[in-house]
Amino acid sequence: MAVEYREEPCRSALNRVKGMAFGWSLNPYMGCVHRCTFCYVRAFEHRADRPFDERYGTSIRVKVNIVEMLRKELARPSWKCESVAIGAATDPYQPAEGRYRLTRGCIGALAAASNPLSIITRGPMIVRDLDVLTEAASRAKVAITFSIPTLDEEVWKKTEPSTAHPRQRLRAVKELVDAGIRVGVGMAPVLPGISDSPDQLAEVVRAAREAGATGVWTNMLFLKPGTREHFLASIARDFPEQLPRYLELYEGRAYLPVEEIKPLRKQVSALARKHGVKDRRERPLDGTRHDEQLELAV
After folding, report:
1. Could you tell me the pLDDT band of residue 97, with boundaries at 50, 70 and 90?
2. Which among 239, 135, 141 is positioned nearest to 191, based on CA atoms?
3. At 16, which helix (H) or strand (E)?
């Protein structure tokens, strides 16, 4: 797949976010070559009248001045040093980062400002930035989530076509945790009838524990316009026997009701307790940590 990289400056680095667990986000790139079939960012692209179908991920905007803009914004007297989520609308460690190193630059700027940050990624390339991450964690709260919805080979290949193998991600989890960084595993989205069997869930939780993950959480698929059309087309192609179920489950809605999600969350929480997933990082000699234990989702 040919990918176009468009080097374009941005007017601002930080984005105000509403209705999420974090108040600010930062995205060094727009668009993502991982092209996961369930990617919720396709819905944003659809709303902005940009390609959300098979063309999504073939054109990546590179915000070449984002580090400079971030430093300026962090230095403003009005900035209250709130936590910043890196990668809310793209993977900050997709292949472009290997060349441009914008995510690394942003972590360095946040570290210099002693500003808390979080990262969500599928990219093992993050281990290259252990030095700036440990520096940032010595100054403020740092939390990383590796997205690992499944270890099922078939499901991974068909739903996350251009991502690193989940086992590679787990090796990155171990390397980061061994360096003292707080790293959880996000089992999301879990796909009904495809990646939600007890054995599939237990396999991920066990592997997360073996990698030393400090916590694990889960959530199910949601299908807004843009994501919905592309995902259902992929189900019709790759898992045709499941299509009637999805058409029924998501008829007239993008999200499943909470009562339908709770059993999954309870199951994953029970597995986490069974396998002893918790923050096992060694404490410094003074008995403190720079950040808090990652709580398990319930």
Report:
1. very high
2. 239
3. strand 14-16
What are the phi and psi torsion angles at 106 (to 5°)? Answer: -70, -40
pLDDT digits (tens, 9 = 90+) for 237-266: 999 999 999 999 999 999 999 999 999 999
Give the DSSP H/E element, type plus range, for residue 183: strand 182-190
pTM of the model: 0.92
| Best CA proximity match to 28, nearest among 74, 71, 62, 72 | 62
Contact indicator for 173, 213 with CB cutoff of 8 Å: yes
Helices (H) and strands (E) in the chain, counts: 11, 10
**Angle, CA of 223, 228 and 233, to the nearest 5°:** 140
* DSSP state letter for 66: H
pLDDT value for 290: 37
CB atoms within 10 A of CB 232: 16
- Determine the 3-state secondary structure of 57 from DSSP: coil
Q: List the domain boundaries for the chain.
A: 1-114
φ, ψ (nearest 5 deg) of residue 100: -90, -30
52-55, Cβ contacts within 8 angstroms, sequence gap of 24 or more: 52/226, 52/227, 52/229, 52/230, 53/229, 53/230, 54/230
Question: Please, what's the b/e burial string for 91-120 (b: 16 or more CB within 10 A of its CB; e: otherwise)?
Answer: bbbbbbbeebebbbbbbbbbbebebbbbbb
Asked if the bond preceding 189 is cis, omega within 30° of 0, the reply is yes
What is the spatial distance between Cα 88 and Cα 92, in angstroms, rounded to a whole number? 9
Element (H, E) at 159: helix 153-159
Which of 92, 217, 209 lies closest to 149 in space, CA to CA?
Answer: 217
Q: Tell me: the pLDDT tens digits for 34-90? A: 999 999 888 777 666 777 677 787 889 999 999 999 999 999 999 999 999 999 899
DSSP code, position 38: T
